[in-house]
Amino acid sequence: MRRFLFAAAIFSLALPCFAGDFQTAAALCDRALGDPTAWHLLESLTAGIGPRPVGTPAAAHARDWAVARLKALGFANVRVEPFAKPSWHRGAESAELVKPYPLRLAVIGLGNSVPTPPQGIEAPVVVLRSYAELLAARPGAFKGKIVVVNQPMTRTEDGSGYGAAVVTRNGDGEAAKRGAVAYLIRSVSTGNGRAPHTGAIWGHTPVIPTAALGVPDADLLQYLAARGPVRLSLKLANWVDAKSQAWNVSGDIRGSERPDEIVVIGGHLDSWDPGTGAIDDAAGVTITVAAANLIGKLPRHPRRTIRVVLFGSEESGGSSDAYLAVHKQELGKIVLAGESDLGSDRAYAVHLPEGAVAAPALAMLPAVLAPLRVLVSDQPAQHAGSDVSGLEKAGVPVLAVDQDASRYFDYHHSADDTLAVVDRAQLNQNVATWAGLLYLVADSKLDFRAKPVKH
Amino acid sequence: MRRFLFAAAIFSLALPCFAGDFQTAAALCDRALGDPTAWHLLESLTAGIGPRPVGTPAAAHARDWAVARLKALGFANVRVEPFAKPSWHRGAESAELVKPYPLRLAVIGLGNSVPTPPQGIEAPVVVLRSYAELLAARPGAFKGKIVVVNQPMTRTEDGSGYGAAVVTRNGDGEAAKRGAVAYLIRSVSTGNGRAPHTGAIWGHTPVIPTAALGVPDADLLQYLAARGPVRLSLKLANWVDAKSQAWNVSGDIRGSERPDEIVVIGGHLDSWDPGTGAIDDAAGVTITVAAANLIGKLPRHPRRTIRVVLFGSEESGGSSDAYLAVHKQELGKIVLAGESDLGSDRAYAVHLPEGAVAAPALAMLPAVLAPLRVLVSDQPAQHAGSDVSGLEKAGVPVLAVDQDASRYFDYHHSADDTLAVVDRAQLNQNVATWAGLLYLVADSKLDFRAKPVKH
């Protein structure tokens, strides 16, 4: 915390070569570090409502919570935009080691998996140590078997280990092609806790029952399978509600000069079910609401409107397309979009659209963010978040805030994703980063669609 | 360490779908984790020889050390390639706070800086909080002043905070244009220790005396300057030896089938002077020598030759161009190049040339590196290291190993860069990563210059 107090002290001084905007933005960051809003919102959304999968009563509670909180904070134009979203529902789940000795394993079904028959599936197990091994196997190689892929995930600050590991989650079709009757993966996790990590199967129609084992359980099976026959019994009871709904909720901090030009930011209200969705993504919801709220309390709003969108179906997809569909006619007015969806640990870099990285209008941004130890990257923003990917593909420029993801995948999509893993000082450092950044981009007249002039 | 023991255990088993190469590479990684070679070399190069700036007797000791060690380990074709390299030599240095109270500050001159007059420079101080502020100031704004830029550096795992912060090191010309008589920077460091961090000024002829303050001293000046007049006295005595020499030293592990095709890897023997250059870059030297040495001890060498080049002048430039100049005629035979120059903390990702990322010949690489928790990135390698940048620009394909740089810039170029900050388990995890990677690329017949086929 010493660092943050120090930051507060120097914010009270003017830089000799910057003025006006710099002082407002720096004071905003300073206030954010001490503001309790994000933490209080985070408590009420997670402990107060609990897990929020699409199609559950809690998802509707979260919608009502969002409307009430945005209104209470003074956001304008608070809207609920419903959309149809079939939902997958977890039932009873179990995995039991049958051979070489009986043991109950930690297991969780993957979203969109097909269920097992009610009596379950019992079969011999084959354990592969990498997804590449599955792809290298010949058709029929695993006939009648339960295939386990025990590929570990690399811990990295930028979360890049996730992409390399999460491919395993979609391997049910590849396993089925090779004769497998069920498909299990090592949880996509950097941790070593027993709690398994769920997540959705996407991009194809699931084929065979698919679930994630706790990390230690996957290692155990590998140990046993290298020494003799292993048999498992797997039961997954789950069902789909084809008629459920989800909602995107939004509220605006109205621009003072160009209110029809909109900066869209947000996080997602929905969550997986084993934890309470604190880092994924109550954190993103509360960071962006708290940052916009502080800007809304300024005596003069920035020139452009800031819209916080709380997306309703990120985990199994849908809210990005839904938002795009409703706002297709006004895309030209969305000047910039971004999302906070990588937890609550410290921000360390921001990325701007290509045309803005070296723009003189944002020359003071490094000085605003430096006391927070956040750098302004010379790499343009890309892939600003799943919920704004629709806008991004439709040509809306994006910004991104890199957060320390070193711990994130220890908890993500597991029972451990609760308020207990959130560090309040780091949460507020994120609010400060978003507040300073948002204020400057929303108050600028920059055309973020313009490409930089080459010299 | 538990992780490494576990890795060793599973290496003893064959994967069902890969064979031959996989087992050799996996066993090599396993041996590397327990091999004492890198640690012993690191001790003798740092504690045994000390700091190794170009133009000092220690640089020649390091050359002789390299020749003797490479020969003793059985490397073939051990060569010394001398080149002319003018050298900058540090003399007595001091910075004293004169006003508001007397205090000796921690300071270190930057490489290539001009000296002060023998009596020093005493002048009022202006403190800027970012480099952007210096660039935004009008000509003459700092007439007769000592300019201090106190821009902090962001701690990141990938070291990307360095690029944003190190620009300050070259600001003497910008400060001089605005009237400054001397230029001081906050050490380019993520730490909070008092020891200042040096480094070279590059890309222009230095104009005014330039040095780095310890991080706490720069913060102190900022505090004081915001409250009243501050005066400093600065003395830098340094000189240039225009006639000095440096040397690149190399040795080969001769290929068994295509000995004329060469994979060039290495680190740099030279170092800055305040510490003993353990992480920068005795680590890179010893990691690559130890990895190649293990491969050289295999009953069958890989098809291609592995050449370890120990570069002689990275810190103030020169060894990359020198290597390129000597080997210009054989560039077509250098199939791949890479360098280890980011300390000794754990490797977490490897990057291959674009044409090799998805090549079936390297399909087992993820499984080889997974027990080390190193991922194979889908991003092609770029900027593989300063000493191979000449080869890279000349069209030689490169590979890169990403290391955890979170701690690296706490010590880099300072008195704290010693053996004491090296973690031996992480050092060996790097040797294992390089050994597995090198074996597979050197034994492959892949043309790394080929671009991937687009489907």
Structural features, described:
The structure is a homodimer of 455-residue chains. Chain A folds into two domains: 286 residues, Zn peptidases (Aminopeptidase), CATH 3.40.630; 147 residues, Glucose Oxidase, domain 1 (3-Layer(bba) Sandwich), CATH 3.50.30. The N terminus of chain A is likely disordered. Chain A has 455 residues and is α/β, with parallel strands linked by helices. In chain A, helix 2 packs antiparallel against helix 14, helix 3 runs antiparallel to helix 9 and helix 9 packs across helix 14. Chain A contains 14 helices and 16 strands. In chain A, the strands form three sheets. An eight-stranded mixed sheet of chain A has the order 3-2-9-5-6-7-8-4. In chain A, strands 1-10-12-11-13 form a five-stranded mixed sheet, sandwiched between helices. A three-stranded mixed sheet of chain A has the order 15-14-16. At the A-B interface, helix 5, helix 6 and strand 15 of A face helix 5, helix 6 and strand 15 of B.
Secondary-structure topology with pairs:
2 copies of one chain form a homodimer.
Chain A: H1 2-11, H2 21-34, H3 37-46, H4 57-72, E1 76-84, E2 87-99, E3 103-105, E4 107-109, E5 121-128, H5 131-136, E6 146-149, H6 161-166, H7 172-177, E7 182-186, E8 210-213, H8 215-225, E9 231-241, E10 245-253, E11 258-268, H9 278-296, E12 304-311, H10 319-326, E13 334-337, E14 347-351, H11 365-369, E15 375-376, H12 389-393, E16 400-403, H13 408-411, H14 424-443
Helix pairs in contact in A: 1-2, 2-14, 3-9, 9-14
